[in-house]
Amino acid sequence: MPYRRTAAVADRLERTRAAIHDAALTLVSEGGWSAVRVTAIADRAGVATGTVYRHVPDKDALCVEVFRQAADRELARVVAAAHQPGRSTERIARALRTFAERALRAPTLASALLADAAPPAVEAERRAYRQGHRDVFAQAIADGVGDGELGPCDPDIVAAALVGAMGEALLGPLAAVRADDPVPGVDELTSVCLRALPPIERAPSDEPTVPSTTASA
């Protein structure tokens, strides 16, 4: 009779796998990708090194899974912020602030997600992560154009510029900030990004008329 895994065994294996993932994510959050070593993961998870390899084929595969786990969580927060009720610019501002504040509160993890040297397999996931953010902002920008709140533009191009500007601006502060520091510069960074949104171009007839101050003859 073929062996059938019991519910108790399946539960134990799932808990072990979760412990391995949690350990790897903690190591990335504390020291970046260079801190993710199989021996360190095993020690943190309380398992043998061989147990790690029974759950993942190699370290790169585990790094990909950990990246997806962390990236999906961060992107979900930005999506939630962008989907709250309000005008398009308000939604964009909330999403920008959420992205920046969370990055500055967890600088080591944010650097790992955004730019730090990583296994080659992670780079493809990183591109998908950036695309996910671009899609969020592109939709909000398209809504703004459709509602007449923003001027005509290519939402994908503007969204890519916003995501690129945010990531680049955060890389410097991320190198110096501590997770327990107040979030610095988020207001200014958000304001700069909002000013980059295409304004409505008013026709000359739409300009307010300035009353003449010249006395009648």
TrEMBL record:
SUPFAM superfamilies named in the record: Homeodomain-like (SSF46689), Tetracyclin repressor-like, C-terminal domain (SSF48498)
Gene3D superfamilies: Homeodomain-like, Tetracycline Repressor, domain 2
Pfam families: TetR_C_24, TetR_N
Gene Ontology MF terms: DNA-binding transcription factor activity; transcription cis-regulatory region binding
HTH tetR-type domain mapped to chain residues: 14-74
Residues passing through the membrane, by range: none
Alphabetized UniProt keyword annotations: DNA-binding
Residue ranges the UniProt entry marks as DNA-binding: 37-56
Signal peptide stretch: none
Domain of life: Bacteria
Name the UniProt record assigns to this protein: TetR/AcrR family transcriptional regulator
Source organism of the structure: Egibacter rhizosphaerae
